[in-house]
Specification:
This protein has 6 helices and 2 strands, in the order ααααββαα. By secondary structure, the chain is mainly alpha-helical. Strands 1-2 form a two-stranded antiparallel ribbon. Strand 1 and strand 2 form a beta hairpin. Helix 2 crosses helix 4. The chain is elongated and about 85 Å long.
Length: 124
């Protein structure tokens, strides 16, 4: 999967209605009509949101007799998780290096307390 795919996935999730649809599908499959129920928009509007999510690979639709339930696709979320995890690890590494540096600076400070302000010594 390419960075372009990742951009499409994040773009699809930029809309709060689509994020809510994804959250609801995490609890289980649902039809477009079931997904449209809580929104004050038409079924066609929700259908457009579903199409965006489907094009991004976040959901798929199957046929179950007359029903066409929407199903959450884990693969796209794995892609996002791997991308986020990579940057989380890099940030944690930077914080560990900063912690080590701060600890080293603390160890180098005189044991008598806080260092004196050089301007105070010049005034004495």
């Amino acid at each position: 999967m390419t960075d372009d795919r990742l951009s499409v996935v994040f773009s699809a999730l930029a809309d709060p209605t689509r994020r809510d649809i994804v959250a609801r599908l995490a609890a289980g499959d649902a039809t477009v009509n079931e997904l449209a129920e809580p929104y004050d928009v038409t079924v066609q509007a929700v259908s457009k949101h579903i199409k965006v999510l489907e094009d991004a690979g976040l959901i798929s639709r199957s046929r179950d007799a007359q029903r066409r339930p929407c199903h959450l696709e884990a693969e796209a979320f794995d892609l996002m998780t791997k991308w986020i995890e990579r940057y989380r690890r890099e940030a944690e590494d930077r914080f560990r290096r900063l912690d080590a540096l701060l600890e080293q600076l603390d160890d180098e400070q005189p044991a008598t307390g806080t260092p004196k302000d050089p301007t105070e010594e010049a005034a004495s």
